[in-house]
Write the structure tokens for this entry.
Amino acid sequence: MSRHEYHRLIEELCEGAQIDAVRRVQEEGWLRLDDKLIHIEYLEQKDRCRISTTFELPEGAAEKSLLRLMLELNFQNADGDFPVFSLHPDTGEIVLNLLYPLPYLMDVGLENVFDEQLAPLLEAWENVLEESEEWSSEESREAPAAEDDSDIHKFV
């Protein structure tokens, strides 16, 4: 695969999502999924696309629990095919990264990946962040363990 296929993938996404700035998305990689700013880039050496977005990290008691949850989720991701969580060194925001092989995205379509995989994952993570606000007020409450059945674990 090549950068040409990546550009074609972005063109198809923009056409389906009625985004006029195709060239800008191809060159800069920024677009909106609902109200979430998403960055997509082609990693030529690996023939993969990285899709990233950020979330604010709540302060207080929930921060420690969320950091632990993110590390546990990353630990379960031994092969790199699942979401990877990190902290942005400058902003302190949670960064969610997903890596997809370009041939896979060409087969299923980027719009389908956004609708069927990314959107539910973002919603699940937003729910975890909302729940975490309650963890701050409940001193005994911890983040869900990485093995429990909460929505965020469906993607790992």
Q: What stands out?
A: The beta strands are 30-33, 36-43, 48-55, 84-87, 94-101. The first helix runs from residue 3 to 17.
